[in-house]
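Q: Can I see a sequence and its folded structure?
A: Here is a first one.
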Amino acid sequence: MRGPYLEMPYIWVCEWCWKKDYLFFPDKEMFAKVTERTAPEPNEPIRQRRTGGTLQLSIAPERQINLKQVHKKVTDLHFDIKNPRFRHLGRIEAEDDVERFLWKEPSTRTLYREIESAQGLSTPLLVDEQGVVREGNRRLVCLKKLIGKIMIGESDVPMYKVDRIPCYILPKGTLEDDIALYLALEHVTGKKEWRPVNQAGQVYDLHRVYNLPFSRISDILGRSQASIRSMEKAYSATLEYHGSFPDDNNWMSRYSYFFEAYRHRQTTEWLAIEGNLERLAEWIHSGKISKGAEIRNLQLIISDSGSVTRRRLSQVQKESDKRLISLTKQTREMLTLMKQGKLTKEALEAIQSLHFELTKFMAKKGSRRKSS
């Protein structure tokens, strides 16, 4: 514990808060000078090294990026609408969307109060040559809000402390995969971890977009290949779920369901059987599985079924599953039309036809059960 700081919102500060890069405390500067002279622990990778007004980023053992620190006007900076941290916010089309969505997050409001109390930033933003903030968009939101408060007299922070801020500038020609790797180092295994779904999305991009093999991602991030593969598969399944059920506005929160499934060998093998991933998605969407922890019950069921995970579905079962999935989607479309009051004569005929198909289908399923 450090303190007291009688002129700040805190009296005593815990170790976790005190080590936050963006929080300022009176004795922190002295501590930073001491730690800069302290050698790193053996086998600890040096990802950042500051020398004067530059920052050296170690993207990978064989690649480094030298960044120059400058001060830029907040009005000259732009939000990164493609930043992977915003995956959970949905589709981002404009900078205003970024500011609006981020300001709704409770953590952003907390950060705003911290920046206002410290009267500025202690950690520079990472910016490209066009002024797009590649790392630090939440801090930019807070600064814009604070400047707005100062202009209307609702904050006593001097304008000169926040209208020009320190930034590290990415050199021209910096590769996008290097930036992606840096963000993964910072937010997948670093001190400022993103939400699990955003971490998985970053791993997914490294493998699918930037063509890095799992072994390479594992070496760089310091995580097991099994963990990396589970994250990538679960995020891919989440995207497929969104494609099948676009009406679910909380689709990104379903990532935890698929990650729980891909964490275990038995459920992973079961999902590899044709039709089972679609079946699981339907159970999640219909509420039969209401939380990720219930996937463990699925694992117990699969375990009790013996060799079901090791045998292929028969052709009859495959056709049955495909037909059921198709009929279910058609039913859902009809229900949507009914809710919207858009039922036409053609729609009513389609419902009658669909009802007939479902009745015939269920009758066949029943006769199979009796014969078996």
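Q: Show me another, different protein.
A: A second, unrelated one:
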Amino acid sequence: MVKKLHDQGRKVIGYISVGSCEDWRPDAAHFPPELLGKDYEGWPGEKWLDIRRIDLLRPVMLARLDLCKSKGFDAVEPDNIEIHDNDTGFPITSADQFAYARWLAEEAHARSLAIGLKNAADMVAEALPFFDFAITEDCFVQGWCDQVLPFIAAGKAVFAAEYTDTGVDFQAACAWGRVHSISFILKNRILTAFRATCL
């Protein structure tokens, strides 16, 4: 599939969760038990990770980045990087979050992979030099898309996903996106094949 997309001239981004352990992933057993925190509410089988312990996370996360590289992905989407203000079971600070994010960016770049900052609007200013693009979820319906505009000002793309379960005015999001050079799509929260784009 990656080759097929490349043949169409597309860039391909690989998804990895960097802030949670999902028990259905083939490497789930590789996370040391002491890294596993509280359940990620609303997502059965998923637990928060203690991202302060880069020493213990390192083998799993580097293996995931290596897998993305070996499969030919151009970039990675690190999900659940925004973690310090969630009820994880660990006393994670915004400084811990940034240190982890910067480490991930450096490791992605060492593999010639681009990396996006996903959500984490309060980290945009300090993370901007290290991240190549941004991904947002629900920023329009929640009213915080303007916080990622520094990426646009820096010549870096912003990809914005809105979801059907929020009642978002998607056409209004598209209109805002056209003015601010942000690309919006509309998806189902459970990520079925459905996708609506701006006309």
